[in-house]
Structures are given as structure tokens and as C-alpha cells.
């Protein structure tokens, strides 16, 4: 979930909920179980950030895609490369969640 927030922030958007997501930032302190957000809130924020991301990308100009990458990530030279990087990162973790769901006896896909 935090990666979607970072994705938006990196591309210059102003995503909602920075304070509540800070606990999930890479390198943050371990959070005791009682400090985690309720699952319903986490899944809701994940979907909300997805909606914000879709809207932001729809409004992104073609010229902006060719601009230099806003942060250094493996294999990124342009904003378009950065978008591809974050997209694949999201897909990777969604695949992990699908596998975990199947191991738990659930459908792989959430939707």
C-alpha cells in the first residue's frame, strides 16, 4: 500500500493519508500488532490509492512521460520508466498475495 502512495508522491501528485501510511514505510520501526491499521481500512486505502493513481495517470501528458526520472530506481531514466517500475512492483506483490490466498484455501484473485 505504501508503494502506491510513494508512486503518486514521486510523480508529483498529492496522495491522501500520508500520516497513517508512514508506519509502513521501508526502514520504519516495527509496529506491534495493536499499532497496525484495521484490515478493512488497509484494503480501503489500497483501493483509494489505486483510484487516485488511475486518475493521475489518465491526466499525465505524453511529454511528461519522456521527462527525466524523478528518483533513482533500477533501470529508470524517464518518468515512463518510473511508471513501469512501480507498475511491476505492484504486480509482483499482488502475485504474492494471490499465492498466499490460494495457500489459505481462498480464490487467488481478490476481485
Domains, number: 2
**Secondary-structure-derived class:** mainly alpha
Give the strand tally. 0
Shape: globular
- SSE series: HHHHH
Radius of gyration: 15 Å
What's the tally of helices?
5
State the helicity in percent bands. Answer: 55-70%
Query: Which percent range describes the beta-strand content?
Result: under 5%
Low-confidence stretches: none
On the 0-100 scale, what is the average pLDDT?
89
Q: How is the main sheet built? A: none
Distance between the termini: 17 Å
Describe this structure as you would to a colleague.
- With about 110 residues, this protein is mainly α.
- It folds into two domains: about 1-60, no CATH class; about 70-110, no CATH class.
- It contains five helices and no strands.
- The protein has helices spanning about 1-10, 20, 40-60, 60-65, 80-105.
- The longest helix is centred in the last third of the chain and has 25 residues, at about 80-105.
- The chain is globular, with a radius of gyration of 15 Å.
- The mean pLDDT is about 90.
